Amino acid sequence: MDRRQIAMKLVVEALGIEFNISTFNDRLILHKAIYLAQAGGVDLGYHYRWYLRGPYSPTLTRDAYAVDLELVGGGEDDSKGWVLHDTWREKLNGLSSLLAADTKADRADRAELLASVHFLVATKQIAEREPGKIRDRLEEFGKDFAEEEVASALRGLKEHDLLC
Amino acid sequence: MTSSAEKPFGGGIIVDAVHGDIHLKPRELDVLDTASFQRLRHIKQLGMGQVTYPNATHTRFAHSIGVLGIMARVLDVASDRLGLDDRQEENLRLAALLHDIGQYPYSHMMEGMRATRLTEEEFGESPSSERTAGPEEPEFPDHESLGHLIVTHQEDLIKALGGLERAEEIARIFTRQDTASLQISKLIHSSLDMDRLDYLLRDSQACGVPYGQVDINYILNNLKASPGGMVGITSKALPAAEHVLLARYYMHRTVYYHKTTFGMEEACRHLLRRIRGREEYGIPRHGGEVSEIVKGAGLLTFTDAMVDRAVREAAHDSDQVVAALAGAILNRRPPKLLKEVCILAQRGEAHHEGKGFRTDCKHRLGGLAKQFGIPLGQFIFCQTRPLRLEQRGGHMTADEARDMPSEQEDELIKVFKDGEEEPTSMVDVPNTWLEVLGAYFFQAFRLYVVCDGEEQAGKVADMREDVKSWDKV
Predict the structure, then answer these.
(1) Which of A39, B222, B259, B314 is most deeply packed, by most CB within 10 A?
(2) What global pTM score does this model have?
């Protein structure tokens, strides 16, 4: 694993998520979790694009795949012996509760909503005060979130200092 | 190039060695003439590729114009069907032109420095202070992020693009962050990768190797847009599309992963990592510094010359490893390959010789360095990225890709099967190489040594003998 891959794996784990890309939901959660971590100031340098399921980073996909190849079948874990800086750890502790959900599917939905809402606001495409417009934009991309869900996501993001 | 004043349509024509005449509109010429865009003339497309292929000195500037040329041809086919207005069309052309504006000096060579672990960090006997991942040194941002910063902060580009609002609009398109138009989003994601089509042809031509010579005319002449807004190829162009995937694979194996180029670039990354942040060399220490450079006047010096100057001066550094690495790059004495392990495997094949080789390096490289009296920092272990036939579907098998509404599947080449109005992903087309070989990856694991002088070079044969068996799983 290279330096960024190690940091990425540690960040995911600090969010209380096991590093795993076996299923689509696993990959989706990984992408959105790293997105939100970066939004919270844990900057790993990944560039996120917009796809049908919200923000997504092809570079992160390549890194995640490379890490998975090293770990599959009990391969050596290079991240052992590395730790996250306390400042990052504290930031991530707060974030993990934001991503909490009862099932993996729920967590994937929640992560997708939070990351998508943040992306639309942070890239100045829709103002934070317009949850209805955010809902409409997400609907264009096939998402069926209610306006209240969007508003709730906005509140959650603000409470965790992810939006000013 | 012909000046805009001489053309009846007010634009200009650039004669491109790969695509022939490329027509530029007035605003595109304005962008081209900015100092910020001209910087791309000073960034080689293939990084250090010219140490292996002497003619591979072509630049990001030429490549950017080539991608605009391809975008123009795609729009000729798709624009009406997708209902794009003039402004959207102009934005897409400008986005194509600007897609690489954020490239680092020596392109991906310097960008990849963020991932580099020095040999003593990775294989040394005692843990170093680098074992904490944290905020003191933010990673170098991906070049797309730098591109966004450049287009929205450099006054010359903002003016050429018609103001900050327009600049942000265009930056969102080439960084693929635009959500305002589903049609544009679909076009960007579903069209054949224009960047890829250009770099395969251009790199192949410049290097003098045939592997990237894809049949671009046949592909573009067989493009089609669906009522639903997807762009794809007709089924008769399927062999040409498969050839693109194979071309990419073989260009990686022969050019991008060439042992000499790869070794030189790794040596340079190790050097830059060692000297970054030292005032006399001017190499930014972390991502925060890079972002500041590209937002200000420093952008114009953020070129290959920044690295060249640092290498020249570092050759006289008092640190033995720094001087050895810099001398090797400066005088083209490529790192000597001690051993290479290549694998072609599927994800499920957990244990392979590459992993065994890496584990052996971890346990034995320190001893080898002592035995031959060469500093550990002059040894470089590296591995290529896993290379698959289609990177964008790269994390899933064909079966998975079929079952899932995956983001990455959006980017796979779309094919119009006979009689169908909407295209399907290439993985859905039976009897293609992608379907059969999609789950395989190629990866090379390499151990090099940078020799400082005749005496060290004289030990290479013995070192090769010693590491010969370092790949037992």
Answers:
(1) B314
(2) 0.90
